[in-house]
UniProtKB/TrEMBL annotation:
It comes from Palpitomonas bilix. The keyword Ion transport does not apply. Residues 241-251 have a biased composition (Basic and acidic residues). GO terms for cellular component: cytoplasm; membrane; myosin complex. Residues 17-39 are annotated as: Actin-binding. Belongs to the TRAFAC class myosin-kinesin ATPase superfamily. Myosin family. Gene3D superfamilies: 1.20.5.4820, 1.20.58.530, Kinesin motor domain (3.40.850.10). InterPro entries: Kinesin_motor_dom_sf (IPR036961), Myosin_head_motor_dom-like (IPR001609), P-loop_NTPase (IPR027417). This is Myosin motor domain-containing protein. Residues 241-357 are annotated as: Disordered. GO terms for biological process: actin filament organization. It comes from the Eukaryota.
């Protein structure tokens, strides 16, 4: 007596056989044939004659011919409707109406009745019917593409333009900042150039002012030097005149000395004679100073000659000497100095007039 929980060998074999049948039924049968590409057993080398002979000997071509004679194309109604839905009107189809929808599809494409067969769950067709359906689908796709292409291009351009606008919006602050930076950089450079130019102008103006002040000071200094030289020349002239008067008075007082020479000869044999005339009325006022030898001698002679006849010639000669024009001589160095001073004075006057103009 067997227990309920005990499995026999026959039951176990039966269960394994059923599992194998279920697995085979769930799978799809494929005809697989191993074909050798060449006899040398090399890769990437195919011999067409050798491959065709294997296909013929293996019965593959015959199997294809037999399959082509039947219904080589088979598909479920739902798959057919999904694949060729572009050929139908845009409406929802119920599963119960799939067979009717497939029939309408085939009739709309003008496919002959002998090229397809309606099964319980699948549609069987020949290759001609499938090719005709594919041709109709390509025509519909082409028409749809012609209609959708402008809209698609416009949409893509709008999207691209929107991207450009967004990029411009994002980059505008950076561009403005860069432009502002460049503007400020150029402004700083221009300010530096202007500052240097103004500094140079100030330096030139200061130099011109200093140069003008130096010119004015030099003119005044040269004028002062000329005046000083002229004053020294006048003083020297007066001293020489006094010295000459004293000599003349001394010579006139002594009868043995010859009269003074009316001219004075330079070292370069040039004669310089300065004539100064004195009137008899002014002669008493131009008498030599009291401390001079002529005045002292004259006084002595006058005092000693009162009432005597010997003093008359000396007195007469003194009067004649005073009434005659006096000759005052300058040395060559003094004359050259006075000439240079005169030339400088004339040049400065011309330069001053030109500066004033």
């Amino acid at each position: 007596k067997r227990g309920r929980g005990v499995d026999t060998v026959a039951e176990k074999f039966k269960g394994q056989l059923q599992f194998l049948l279920d697995k085979l039924g769930a799978g799809r049968c494929w005809f697989v044939r191993c074909i050798k590409p060449n006899q040398q057993q090399k890769s990437d080398l195919a011999e067409a004659d050798f491959i065709l002979s294997q296909l013929r000997c293996g019965g593959v071509l015959e199997a294809l011919r037999i399959q082509k004679m039947g219904w080589p194309v088979c598909a479920k109604y739902g798959d057919v409707l999904i694949q060729y839905s572009a050929l139908l009107s845009f409406k929802r189809i119920d599963r119960k109406e799939e067979v009717e929808a497939c029939t309408n599809l085939l009739e709309a494409c003008r496919i002959k009745r002998e090229l397809y067969c309606l099964g319980k769950t699948k549609l069987f067709m020949k290759e001609e019917a499938q090719a005709q359906l594919n041709d109709e689908l390509k025509v519909v796709w082409k028409e749809a593409a012609d209609v959708l292409e402008p809209y698609l291009v416009a949409t893509l351009r709008r999207l691209a333009f929107a991207d450009v606008v967004e990029a411009a919006r994002q980059i505008t602050p950076y561009v403005r900042c860069r432009c502002e930076g460049m503007w400020w950089r150029e402004r700083r450079e221009a300010a530096a150039v202007l500052k240097a130019a103004l500094l140079q102008a100030d330096v030139r103006k200061g130099y011109a002012d200093k140069k003008g002040a130096i010119g004015v000071l030099s003119r005044h200094f040269r004028t002062h030097l000329r005046h000083s030289a002229y004053a020294r020349a006048i003083l020297a002239k007066r001293k020489r005149e006094e010295r000459a008067e004293r000599k003349e008075d001394g010579r006139s007082s002594s009868p043995l000395l010859p009269p003074a020479s009316p001219t004075l000869r330079r070292q370069d044999d040039s004669i310089v004679t300065v004539m100064t005339s004195t009137s008899p009325a002014e002669s008493p006022s131009q008498s030599p100073p009291a401390h001079s030898p002529a005045a002292v001698g004259g006084g002595e002679r006058r005092s000693s000659g009162i009432g005597s006849g010997s003093s008359e010639p000396s007195t007469r000669s003194g009067l004649l000497a005073r009434s005659m024009p006096k000759r005052v001589s300058f040395s060559s160095a003094e004359m050259e100095a006075v000439g240079k001073v005169g030339e400088e004075g004339g040049g400065e006057e011309e330069g001053g007039s030109s500066d004033e103009d």
